[in-house]
C-alpha cells in the first residue's frame, strides 16, 4: 500500500486515476482547486477511509505532514477553452505550480509523474510523432500558454532529476476521452456527443480534415500507473491510441451512434490548431508493455451512455 498524492484529482483523468488507486488499496490525497474539476467526479470516494481531499491551488506552496510515496501531477486545465480563458494562470500552473510540486517531491524523496501532452509537438511536421521529435510550437500564439507551459514543465522535471536526483516520470498524453468529462469541457468528443444527444448542430472547426487519435480513459490510467511503477525509466513516453481519425469522421461516427438528427456546421478554425496528430507508441510498448485496448467505437459507446445520464 502506498500513499499517493494526485494533483488535479477531481478532473476528468484524475478522478479515474484516484478511483483505480483507491480500489487497489492505496491511500490517496487528492489536491484540486476545482477550476475545471467537479465534486461529482469524486463523490463516490469522499467517504472512503483511504481518500482525502485538499482544496488547493498548486500555484501556491503546499505543505503536507504525511509521508508520501508517489505524486501524479495532473493539475492544469486541459481543454483549449479553459486553458485560454486565463492564459497567465495556465503558465503559472505549469511553472510555479510545477516548481511547488517538484519541491514537495524533493522534500518527501518520492517519485513524481508529470502529465505532459502531445501539445509539446505543436503543429507537427513529423507524423506520427515519436518522442525524439522536438516539435513545431508557436511560442506567442493562443495555445502557447499551454504548449510552452507544458514544455517548461518537462524542462523543470528533467532539471530536478539531473540536479537533485529526483525520480521522475514524464508521460506525453494524447487526446483522451471518456466519462467524467465536464459538460462544459469544450473538447471535441464531449462537445460532439452532447450536441448529438440534444439534436443540436455539430460544430466542426474548419473543414474537419484535421486529425486526432483518441484514447479511452481506462487505457490512459493503466498506462500512467504502469509508467509510475516502471523501473529506471524517466520517459518522456507517448501514451495514446494510434488509431487516427479526422474530426469529420468523428462527427459522422457520433451522429450514427446516437441516431441523432443533428446537422454538421463548419465554424472558423482557431489559430495554431494542429493539422494532424498520431502517437508513435513503440517506446511505451517496449518499456511498459502497454498498448491501448479500447477501440473508438467501444469507448464512444461508454461515453455516450455517460452523457445520456448526465444531461
Ligand atoms: P481536466 O481539466 O478535467 O482536469 C484538470 C484538473 O486539474 C481539474 O480537476 C482542475 O480543477 C485541476 N486544476 C487545474 N488547475 C489547477 C491548479 N492550479 N491547482 C490545482 N488544481 C488545478 O483535464 P484532464 O483531461 O483530466 O487532464 C488532466 C491532465 O492531463 C492535465 O494536466 C492535462 O494537461 C493532461 N493532458 C490531458 C489530455 C487529455 O486529452 N485529456 C491530453 C494531454 C494532457
Ligand atoms: N473541434 C471541433 N469542434 C469542437 C471542438 C473542437 O471541430 O466543438 C476541433 C478542434 O478545433 C481540433 C479538434 O477538434 O481541431 C480537437 O480539439 P480538442 O479541443 O478536443 O483538443 P486539441 O487536440 O485541439 O487540444
Give structural notes.
With 311 residues, the chain is α/β, with parallel strands linked by helices. It has a single domain, classed as Rossmann fold (3-Layer(aba) Sandwich). The protein contains 10 helices and 13 strands. The strands form 4 sheets. A 7-stranded parallel beta sheet has the order 3-2-1-4-5-6-11, sandwiched between helices. A two-stranded parallel ribbon has the order 7-10. The protein has a two-stranded parallel ribbon with strand order 8-13. Strand 1, helix 1 (12-24) and strand 2 (27-32) form a beta-alpha-beta unit. Helix 1 packs across helix 7 (217-229), helix 4 (87-108) runs parallel beside helix 5 (144-164) and helix 8 (247-258) packs across helix 10 (296-310). The mean pLDDT is 98. Bound molecules: nicotinamide-adenine-dinucleotide and uridine-5'-diphosphate.
Fold blueprint:
Elements: E1 3-7, H1 12-24, E2 27-32, H2 39-42, E3 51-55, E4 70-73, H3 80-83, H4 87-108, E5 111-117, H5 144-164, E6 168-173, E7 176-177, H6 188-197, E8 202-205, E9 211-213, E10 215-216, H7 217-229, E11 237-239, E12 244-246, H8 247-258, E13 264-267, H9 282-288, H10 296-310
Parallel strand pairs: 1-2, 1-4, 2-3, 4-5, 5-6, 6-11, 7-10, 8-13
Antiparallel strand pairs: 9-12
The protein binds nicotinamide-adenine-dinucleotide and uridine-5'-diphosphate (UDP).
Uridine-5'-diphosphate binds next to helix 6 and strand 8.
Amino acid at each position: 500500500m502506498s500513499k499517493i498524492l494526485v494533483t488535479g484529482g477531481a478532473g476528468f483523468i484524475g478522478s479515474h486515476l484516484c478511483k483505480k488507486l483507491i480500489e487497489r488499496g492505496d491511500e490517496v490525497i487528492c489536491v484540486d482547486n476545482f477550476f475545471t474539476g467537479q465534486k461529482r467526479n469524486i463523490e463516490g470516494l469522499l467517504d472512503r477511509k483511504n481518500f482525502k481531499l485538499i482544496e488547493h491551488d498548486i500555484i501556491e506552496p503546499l505543505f503536507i505532514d504525511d509521508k508520501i510515496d508517489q505524486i501524479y501531477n495532473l493539475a492544469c486545465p486541459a481543454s483549449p477553452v479553459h486553458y485560454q480563458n486565463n492564459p497567465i494562470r495556465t503558465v503559472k500552473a505549469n511553472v510555479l505550480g510545477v516548481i511547488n510540486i517538484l519541491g514537495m517531491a524533493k522534500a518527501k524523496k518520492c517519485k513524481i509523474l508529470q502529465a505532459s501532452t502531445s501539445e509539446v509537438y505543436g503543429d507537427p511536421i513529423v507524423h506520427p510523432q515519436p518522442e525524439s521529435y522536438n516539435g513545431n510550437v508557436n511560442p506567442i500564439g493562443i495555445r502557447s500558454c499551454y504548449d510552452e507551459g507544458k514544455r517548461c514543465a518537462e524542462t523543470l522535471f528533467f532539471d530536478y532529476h539531473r540536479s537533485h536526483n529526483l525520480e521522475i516520470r514524464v508521460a506525453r498524453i494524447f487526446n483522451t476521452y471518456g466519462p467524467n468529462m465536464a459538460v462544459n469541457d469544450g473538447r471535441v468528443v464531449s462537445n460532439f456527443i452532447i450536441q448529438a444527444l440534444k439534436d443540436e448542430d455539430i460544430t466542426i472547426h474548419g473543414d474537419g480534415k484535421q486529425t486526432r487519435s483518441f484514447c479511452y480513459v481506462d487505457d490512459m490510467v493503466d498506462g500512467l500507473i504502469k509508467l509510475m511503477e516502471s523501473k529506471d525509466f524517466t520517459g518522456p513516453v507517448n501514451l495514446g491510441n494510434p488509431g487516427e481519425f479526422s474530426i469529420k469522421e468523428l462527427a459522422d461516427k457520433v451522429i450514427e451512434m446516437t441516431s441523432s438528427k443533428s446537422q454538421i456546421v463548419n465554424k472558423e478554425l482557431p489559430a495554431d490548431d494542429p493539422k494532424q496528430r498520431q502517437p508513435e507508441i513503440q517506446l511505451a510498448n517496449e518499456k511498459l508493455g502497454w498498448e491501448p485496448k479500447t477501440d473508438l467505437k467501444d469507448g464512444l459507446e461508454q461515453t455516450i451512455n455517460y452523457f445520456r445520464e448526465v444531461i
